[in-house]
């Protein structure tokens, strides 16, 4: 009897084990499953990041319309600092809309009346210009709505406090649209406000929804709010002639707070659209040539296009292959050309 019991126990122990071949087969199956599932998991994560990027633009759309409800105009693309002062770089539309993006507390602490310095948006102090108060307030402050999660561009500017240091004001991955480079010289309305300029920094237009030194009324968007771009992504790289990656956002490294000046014709955190979506040639006039060029493109990290916010608050994916003239029609608010 003892022999049979012992023999049975030995058989049970043997039946519970795995052979080396079986173990290798199991490992191989797990490897195949991981290989099959990993791309799907990565795709799901990227889809979530892309949705978050779109939602940020939708939040900007709500902010712009809430601003319009309160002020009866869209926010300016940027407003200069103290009138008549030198280097009076003012606040961008991203600063102007802070109270409407759940950042009212930050907005209320800013010196936007330029009592501490001529500039309000140039947030560093080198002894002759800049606003140390605003820079010290904004440095290192992360504002979720400003950043597309899919972007790998740097989050922080290199300036933004007194003295400048490695962590400055947050850089946005979105840009306001001030118009297109092909707006007619004599537009159907508001001739003095809409005409294009050809400057040393490229073509500049005031025919869009978010314009420097101007607060656009909805009634001025005669092409229709659903046919007029207000903002878009700028979340990808451009490339130099050597193939090196170059950051070609319209804040030029100063961060989201930077607005225009009355001293010069530079635009910050807005762009006049001149080139196709996802144009990445840094050497083109108005992109990287010269410095502070004002035609930096609508572009993203996604293949095939970029997200755009329309003046009615809707967000749509703008196809990369669409005709440049069609894109220009979307960027002008009153040129009489409604894009199909």
How is this structure best described in words?
With 340 residues, this protein is α+β, with helices and mostly antiparallel strands. It has a domain at 42-76 and 172-331. 28% of the residues lie in helices and 13% in strands. It contains seven helices and eleven strands. The protein has helices spanning 2-16, 20-71, 93-96, 104-109, 132-138, 191-194, 324-331, and strands spanning 78-79, 91-92, 174-180, 197-199, 202-204, 229-233, 237-239, 245-247, 270-273, 305-310, 315-319. The strands form four sheets. Strands 9-3-6-10-11 form a five-stranded mixed β-sheet. It is globular and about 85 Å long. Residues 185-195 have low confidence and may be disordered.
Topology, pairings included?
Elements: H1 2-16, H2 20-71, E1 78-79, E2 91-92, H3 93-96, H4 104-109, H5 132-138, E3 174-180, H6 191-194, E4 197-199, E5 202-204, E6 229-233, E7 237-239, E8 245-247, E9 270-273, E10 305-310, E11 315-319, H7 324-331
Parallel strand pairs: 3-9
Antiparallel strand pairs: 1-2, 3-6, 4-5, 6-10, 7-8, 10-11
Brief summary:
With 340 residues, the protein is an alpha+beta fold.
Instruction: Determine the N-to-C terminus distance.
Output: 91 Å
Quote the average pLDDT. Answer: 84
What is the radius of gyration?
A: 26 Å
Physical arrangement of strands within the biggest beta sheet: 9-3-6-10-11
Order of helices and strands: HHEEHHHEHEEEEEEEEH
Percent helix: 25-40%
